[in-house]
Amino acid sequence: MLRKQTFDNNIYMKMFRWAYIFLLSSICFTLVTSPFFLSVVFLAVDSRNIVPFTVSLLFFGPAMGALFSVIDRFKQDQDVSPVRQFLIGYRRFGVRGLLMWLPGWLGSIIAVVDIFFFSKVTNGQWLIPFFLLVAIVGIALSINCWYFQVKNPRASIKDVVHLSIYYVFRKWYISLLNVLLYLLLPLLMLLKPQFGFLITPSLLAGLIYLNASILHKNGDSSSEVTAK
C-alpha cells in the first residue's frame, strides 16, 4: 500500500518550501538595503557617486543581523516564516546590527582612501597590505558580532565585541573566508543585479553563518556570553 504523501514527508514540497524561504529572505534583505539597490540601478559606478554608494552600504548592518536571525531560526526548527522572522530580527538586532557594522564600514573606507593616497606616494605601496588588513579585520569583526549577537540576544554589545575580537584572530582563516564571501555580496549586486539581489543574500549569508557556527561549535565554553 502506498503511503500518503504529506508536506512533512514529501521531498518536493520541502524543496519548494526551502526555495520560498530562500527567495523571501533575499527579498527582505534587498528591501532593507534598498538605498544600495537604487544606487546600483540609477547611478554610474564612478568617483562622482562614491558618497551615495558609501552611505547606502550602512544599511547592510541591520539587514545582515535580521537575515542571520532568519537563518538561525531555520537551523533550529528546520522551518521558518521568513518575512515574520526577518521583521522580528530587524526589530531586535537592527540598531545593534548597524553599530556592529561600523568597524567593517569605517575600516573599509579608511583602507580605500589610504590605499588610493599612498599608491601615488613614493614607496607608499609598501603600506597597502597594512590598510588591507585594517579592512579585513574590521569586516571580520562585524561578521562575528552579528553572529554572536544573534546566538546570544541578551548579551551586551561589549561582551559580544570582546568575544568577536578573540575569534577574529584565533580562527583567522575562517574570518578571512567569511570576509571574502561577504565582499562577494555587494560585488555581485553591482555586476549582476538581477542575480545579486535575489539569490546571493541568502546564499552567501547562509555560507557565512555556517562558517561562523564553527567558531561557536569549537568554543562552546567561551562563546556563550550573557548580558551583565
What number of domains? 1
What would the principal axes of the Cα set say about the shape? Answer: globular
Share in β-strands: under 5%
Distance between the termini: 59 Å
Instruction: Give the biggest sheet.
Output: none
Helix content: over 70%
Protein name: DUF624 domain-containing protein
Transmembrane segments: 20-44, 50-72, 93-118, 124-148, 172-189, 195-212
Keywords: Membrane, Transmembrane, Transmembrane helix
InterPro entries: DUF624
Main attributes of the structure:
228 residues; mainly alpha; 11 helices; 78% helix
Per-chain topology:
Blueprint: H1 11-32, H2 34-42, H3 50-56, H4 60-77, H5 82-118, H6 128-151, H7 157-170, H8 172-191, H9 193-196, H10 200-218, H11 220-223
Helix pairs in contact: 1-4, 1-10, 2-3, 4-5, 4-6, 4-10, 5-6, 6-7, 6-8, 6-10, 8-10
Could you provide a short overview of the structure?
The chain is mainly α and 228 residues long.
Structure description:
The protein is mostly helical and 228 residues long. It has one domain (11-223). The protein has helices at residues 11-32, 34-42, 50-56, 60-77, 82-118, 128-151, 157-170, 172-191, 193-196, 200-218, 220-223.
